[in-house]
Amino acid sequence: MKPTHLGRWWTPVAAAALLLAGVTVAAADAGPADAGTLVASAGCGKTPTLTSGTQTIQSSGQNRSFILRIPANYDNARQYRLVFAFHWYGGTAGDVDSGGTDGYNWSYYGLRRLADSAGNGTIFVAPQGNGNGWANPNGQDVTFVDDMIRRVENDLCVDTAQRFALGFSYGGAMSYALACARATTFRAVAVYSGAAISGCSGGTQPVAYMGIHGISDNIGGGQALRDTFVRNNGCTPQNAPEPAAGSRTHITTTYSGCRAGYPVVWAAFDGGHTPGPIDGGGEGWRSWTPTEVWRFFTGETAPTPQTFRLRGESSGRCLDVNGASSANGTQMIVWDCHTNANQQFTQNGKALQVLGKCLEAPVNASPGTRTRIWDCNGGANQQWNVNDNGTITSVQTGLCLDANGTANSSAVTVSTCTGGANQRWAKA
């Protein structure tokens, strides 16, 4: 993956086109793969003539090409998922297929690796844009997609209710154009850092939609693309939470109230124009984006977080939200261990969550400051390292979670780390 190369399509021309074009999440509706039934393509049962590699096709009077990736041990009696992955401006179909400098692990934005490990149930297509972009003049690129679908499905066995599209940057714009113009053709789309520069013909029908966008991306408008399908899908509008600048985290929100089978998901991350942000900093194939997009496309649910208590070594008592209040600012204490919700924590990345809130110390807290709960926002003051030696340290300050006594109601603060028993905690 070449992040600096991937984002270079943002030019004055593209900017002008855009101007003219105008952690706690809600309960998930049915995933896109839950809707529809198996509908076999014409290629089912046929001996295929297509093979993995570059294919050429005539479309709108032009010679066009795409790379096809057919699973190993292809079975013409099995109906496969069909995924189109669009390159960025200046990128190529070969970059998408090969995974660039990250190789196989980033092939098709990391989805090929996940599909292979899930049983090889997916056929991938990497189309090549004219001029290495997706201007889609007079709908030519949408027609190109129609022609590729026809060619692939006449030869290979595809579940026609399971077509998907994704792409980054200009490729995200093309995926959005398909969401607008081919909502009944595609089951779901994922738009990475996209904008409305490939057009939006139609744009009034529902389609399962996932948007991924950095809070410091120099390409704006991602929220507006998302909100098109919040409306079309009948979802309840909301201001989706976004992580704080400097937190190097992401927050994924599933909108509530959407029509069954037409979810809208928004993943905001602390970063710029990249398809592969990594929580904690950096970018590459170890990003969280492949897993979350794959779950969205396939309808898989994330594993249920395991709950635990945090028992202090010195007191034998548990970290407790005082009075079981979920109000912002409620302070932490130690109390006799029990099984009520105000002692039941889950770990989401580096966040420690309880009662639907996050454990935090105030921003840039000094030693001796009380800890508390607050709405999760991805800030560094809500990030904790749970260390092998039993200490729990603030990512922002490096201070340790500290019980100031052993009796019930003793305050829990952040303090300079000493390694003492009052700073050692065990999951229980």
UniProtKB/TrEMBL annotation:
Domain Ricin B lectin: 304-428
Annotated Gene Ontology cellular component terms: extracellular region
GO molecular function, one term: feruloyl esterase activity
Subcellular location: Secreted
Main location: secreted
Role of this protein: Involved in degradation of plant cell walls. Hydrolyzes the feruloyl-arabinose ester bond in arabinoxylans, and the feruloyl-galactose ester bond in pectin. Active against paranitrophenyl-acetate, methyl ferulate and wheat arabinoxylan.
Similarity comment: Belongs to the faeC family.
Name the UniProt record assigns to this protein: Poly(3-hydroxybutyrate) depolymerase
